[in-house]
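Quick review question:
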């Protein structure tokens, strides 16, 4: 594939990777959800892989459109129907995140920068793990990214929790569906609760969450270990994930 010079990013993770690779100038449009993960002020703000205007995307004359799971098949079909080249990244783990960085590094002719970025992220993870090994215990951590239904954070966040010395609870049955029920949460008795609702930033009503029936019996609630975290800090499978993990370790 010829090196793309006009990229539309419909995923915050893709935008964060492109910018971290030093290729921001190749972006001609980004999803409106990118503002907190990368310096993209001034670029056209578009929809996402669920809902966007294919004509608006095509008008930017991109030679590559990048998205990420989950996406709506009809939206992708509409983009392909415009003759656009679409790359769908499917990250599920920390290893997948580094693979996506290396992939975009190759496509953008920035392989050396990509390998440097990955090495830096891996060193940060090693430092976090070294500090975590000195901890005496592993607290149970519940990270909620949506409330109706209850959806827990992606698997790479589950790996981040383990890396930082915690134990992610409750663990869902599969990576594809990260839904759990309230009974699972109550049975897991989390000692730390983190609320990182998708697309809400810091606008989470923690009081409403704490008023859920029986939640006042949870160790995290009794000990006031309930925190609101911007969802971009954990739900963006790109460089921001490791950067924020390092900052909070």
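Suggested answer, residue by residue:
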């Amino acid at each position: 594939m010829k090196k793309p010079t006009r990229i539309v990013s419909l995923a915050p993770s893709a935008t964060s990777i492109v910018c971290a690779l030093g290729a921001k100038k190749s972006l001609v449009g980004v999803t409106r959800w990118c503002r907190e993960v990368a310096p993209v002020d001034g670029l056209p703000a578009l929809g996402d892989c669920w809902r966007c205007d294919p004509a608006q995307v095509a008008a930017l004359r991109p030679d590559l459109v990048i998205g990420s799971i989950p996406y709506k098949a009809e939206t992708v079909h509409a983009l392909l129907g415009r003759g656009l080249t679409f790359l769908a990244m499917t990250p599920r783990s920390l290893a997948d995140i580094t693979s996506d960085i290396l992939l975009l590094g190759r496509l953008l002719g920035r392989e050396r920068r990509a390998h440097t970025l990955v090495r830096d992220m891996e060193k940060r993870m090693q430092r976090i793990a070294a500090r975590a090994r000195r901890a005496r215990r592993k607290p149970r951590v519940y990270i909620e990214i949506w409330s109706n239904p209850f959806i827990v954070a992606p698997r790479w966040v589950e790996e981040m929790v383990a890396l930082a010395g915690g134990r992610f609870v409750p663990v869902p049955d599969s990576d594809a569906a990260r839904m759990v029920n309230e009974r699972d949460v109550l049975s897991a008795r989390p000692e730390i609760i983190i609320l990182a609702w998708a697309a809400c930033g810091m606008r989470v009503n923690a009081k409403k969450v704490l008023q859920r029936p029986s939640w006042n019996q949870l160790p995290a609630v009794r000990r006031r270990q309930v925190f609101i975290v911007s969802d971009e800090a954990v739900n963006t499978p790109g460089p921001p994930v490791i950067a924020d993990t390092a900052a909070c370790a």
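Why it works: The mean pLDDT is 90. The CA atoms of residues 5 and 26 lie 5 Å apart.
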